[in-house]
Specification:
- The chain is mainly beta.
- It has 2 domains: 29-120, Lipocalin (Beta Barrel), CATH 2.40.128; 136-312, Exo-inulinase, domain 1 (Jelly Rolls, Sandwich).
- It is 7% helix and 38% strand.
- It is built from 2 helices and 22 strands.
- The chain has helices spanning 2-18, 33-38; strands at residues 40-44, 47-53, 58-65, 79-86, 89-94, 97-101, 104-108, 114-120, 136-139, 147-148, 158-159, 162-164, 171-178, 193-197, 201-205, 239-246, 249-250, 256-258, 260-266, 269-277, 295-296, 304-312.
- The strands form 4 sheets. An 8-stranded antiparallel β-barrel has the order 1-2-3-4-5-6-7-8.
- The protein is globular, with a radius of gyration of 20 Å.
Length: 313
């Protein structure tokens, strides 16, 4: 009974998502309107802020000492403030007071310090990385025949929901992904996909911009280990995963003698370093000695991929 109810609930949520009941899905910055123009990352010397659009003109801002994640943040707990948009400006109140308008964030901290932060758009240092010698190009734009059931959108991007025809053991993988702007959605319904290694172990893809690092957030080894740092860029930014994967080892009797090991860099920053995988994640296939495919999971969100290549080892 419980299993059947769970399947029914999942099916209902999928239907609601497909029907757009989790709010609009914007696929290009020009479509996102004023809320998209205000959300994003802001910097000043020794300060960083991440502003998250929450739908209906509402925002949450996280103020970080030292700078942005991966770019100076000292890892102290961010100061948080909330506010609603009035025309093209947002008044923020909380741990700090601020005014968000015209690409700037004016902040007065709890200690009375005043700062002016300006909006920036970061780019991963590995974005556009060319495939090295010995790499197999899985998707480079016009050609997608390395994937079964591949679907390209009118822009020539690879949609989530594709599985490689080839199976792999150990490898180095590079790919680039973009989550949609879904300001009204929350949690696992906000730009969800995943990169399944050997169709067994999922590295989560999600719009987790501005949130704490979580075990089911972007960059997580799904429900096994949270990333060391949430390196998510804002939605509709191109982001990168660079993944080193060592397959689990088994003896002649089929007994596992060594766990699979994975390292992940997101947007050029190490977020998982030589993590031993205790077993499959989520709905992954059971572990085994045989190689497995790379799967770009379809979780009912318009997540897209490009520049996907792999170096078998």
């Amino acid at each position: 009974m419980r299993s059947g109810a769970s399947r029914l609930a999942r099916g209902l949520l999928a239907a609601l998502a497909l029907a757009g009941c989790f709010g609009p899905e914007y696929l290009e910055p020009a479509e996102g309107g004023r809320d998209f123009a205000l959300q994003g990352e802001y910097t000043a010397p020794e300060w960083g802020a991440q502003v998250i659009a929450r739908g209906g003109g509402n925002f949450v801002a996280a103020l970080q000492r030292g700078g942005l994640p991966g770019a100076g943040w000292d890892l102290r707990e961010p100061e948080l403030a909330r506010g609603g948009r009035d025309a093209d400006a947002v008044a923020l109140r909380g741990d700090f007071d601020g005014t968000l308008q015209g690409g700037t964030l004016r902040v007065r901290s709890a200690e009375g310090e005043s700062y002016l932060l300006r909006r920036v758009e970061r780019e991963s240092p590995t974005q556009g990385a060319p495939p090295p010698e010995g790499a197999r190009v899985l998707f480079d734009g016009p050609r997608s025949d390395a994937f079964a059931d591949a679907k390209l959108d009118p822009r020539g991007l690879l949609a989530a929901g594709a599985t490689t025809r080839e199976r792999f053991g150990s490898f180095t993988l590079h790919l680039e992904f973009r989550t949609p702007f879904m300001p009204d959605a929350r949690g696992q319904w906000r730009g969800n996909s995943g990169v399944y290694l050997q169709n067994r172990y999922e590295i989560q893809v999600l719009d987790s911009f501005g949130l704490a690092a979580e075990i089911d957030g972007c960059g997580a080894i799904y429900e096994q280990r949270a990333p060391a740092l949430n390196m998510s860029f804002p939605p509709l930014s191109w982001q990168t995963y660079d993944i080193d994967f060592e397959a689990a080892r088994f003896d002649a009797s089929g007994k596992k003698t060594a766990d699979a090991v994975v390292s992940v860099r997101q947007n050029g920053v190490a977020i998982q370093e030589r993590v031993a995988l205790g077993g499959r994640t989520g709905r992954g296939e059971p572990e085994g000695a045989e190689p497995g495919p790379l799967v770009l999971q379809d979780h009912w969100s318009p997540v897209f991929y490009r520049n996907v290549w792999i170096v078998p080892r």
